[in-house]
Amino acid sequence: MGFVENELASSLTDDQRAILDSVQKYRITIVESANSLGKTWISARAALWLLRCHVDAQVYMAAAPPEDNLKNLLWGELDASLINASPAVLDGLTRRALSLAYGPRWWCKGLTIPTTGTPEQRQARFCAAADELFELPTGEVVSYKSLIGKKVDVISVDANFNKAGSKAEFFDNGIDTVYEIVLSSGARIVRTGKHPLFVGKLARNYKKMGGGHVKGRVLVEGEKWTSVDEMKKGDAVLVPESTDFNFGSLSMDANEIKVLAYLIGDGSIASEHIMFIQEDNKQLEEFKNAVSSLGATIKVSNPKEYSWRINGDGSKKWGHNSVLNLLRMHGLLGKNSSTKRVPAQINILNKECIALFLNRLFSTDGWASLVKYGIYRKAEIGYVSKSEDLARDIHRLLLRFGIASKVAKRKASWVYKGVKKYGNYWNCLIYRAEDIIRFSDLIGIYGKEQALERCVTYSKSRGVYAAWRKSKYDDFCWDRVKSITRLGETPTVGVYVPDNNTYLTNVVEHNSGKHSPFLL
């Protein structure tokens, strides 16, 4: 009462004093009410008192549909009558539509109680961060928020985890708390706390051997649909062995694919002065031929640094550098080593074209080698880039071929013109025997065939992946949770799949479950 009267300079009736006294003393307050008695007026002031006077308060201001009731009445009372009249109450607060916040654990927000639709539709809340990327069966990669209000084709699974085609409905889920889940493969997803994934617990099954020895085998037990906020580090999450259902059907000229891949890997494309950095080898010879076939020319710029300049066809007319136009068309012109990524058009190509693109991309900053990890030897295929987006794009495309890879950040140092420099790089690594063999069979690396063959020979002499990763469901395997981090509040998008209530991304996801603990 003192806060309302002194800080907000408002007068209270006896009934309003009684309401505030009850809110302050008791966990639950129920008020018999009618129209025009000031319940909206007092609710807004009670909410602001909770927010300003209680550390880590979380205040929900709810109104029945339509949403305009919330915006114009309850939130309008808070926003117009209080905040605008008393700007000092904004000190330390972040203000946005239907939300006031000190931080991720201390806020006041508005929400509308849903009443339309079936109970299943109201509870269907598969929720991802709005800026997260979603891969369509056409191969197109888009943000979740771009799909709001649309119905799109997805791949779902039935109760026995058999794949089926379904339709998904995307809708605005408002502001909600989200968590970042990072798997041991480096895959990263951001989901709301109540979003269910199919999860199991890793346990060691001990078996007594001869001579009293005990042998342990890691297995996945207790598998079930589990909400994100109940998951733990070390849990196993069910993932598809491949996302081959996301291959597109389009094709592209082979020379255009090669030029794009080579310039993403070894090109300087931050300006219109396009350079290609490559020593005299098979890759350089093929790149020259591909550039020539597109009607452009290439000449040496700095032989000591293996630098080559790509020019137009010799015409003085503007726009006659076909390679420059190709980069511009695919949104690559102006990208530096930290901002390069796979062009959108590549994502929707067919399997053969994407294999060609990856083959030539790995022939630049990729490798195949036998490396030592402590006392062990291991075959490894990898690609390195300063761009995290590019590494994750490659990881996503490899999964379409059923090739598991790992995205990892590493620090590196080097000397440039006598000055030691440091920076972060991103690796996309393939190191399991069966994935190395599959990569060789389906993709390969142009110009590095012998190194790749050594890796394949070594991998064929080794065993397959850990037994615990193999699930009892065909075409699915397990991945381990490396970390779960609470990120705070952000715009989210919900998805409703009417038939199977599931669909596949790079994990197996369910759209059922109340998306927020306060939803009635």
First and last CA, distance: 30 Å
Number of helices: 13
> Based on DSSP secondary structure assignment, what is the total number of beta strands?
24
**What is the 3D form?**
elongated
Structural class: alpha+beta
Rg is 29 Å
Q: Spans of 5+ residues with little confidence (pLDDT < 50)?
A: 513-520
Percent in helix: 25-40%
Largest sheet, in brief, is:
8 strands, antiparallel
- Strand-residue proportion: 25-35%
Q: Give the averaged pLDDT, no decimals.
A: 86
Please provide a written account of the structure.
With 520 residues, the chain is an alpha+beta fold. Helices cover 27% and strands 35% of the residues. The protein contains 13 helices and 24 strands. The strands form 6 sheets. Strands 5, 8, 9, 10, 11, 12, 13 and 22 form an 8-stranded antiparallel β-sheet that branches. The protein has a 4-stranded mixed β-sheet with strand order 1-4-3-2. A hairpin with a 5-residue loop joins strand 8 and strand 9. Helix 3 crosses helix 4 and helix 12 crosses helix 13. It starts with a helix and ends in a 10-residue tail after the last strand.
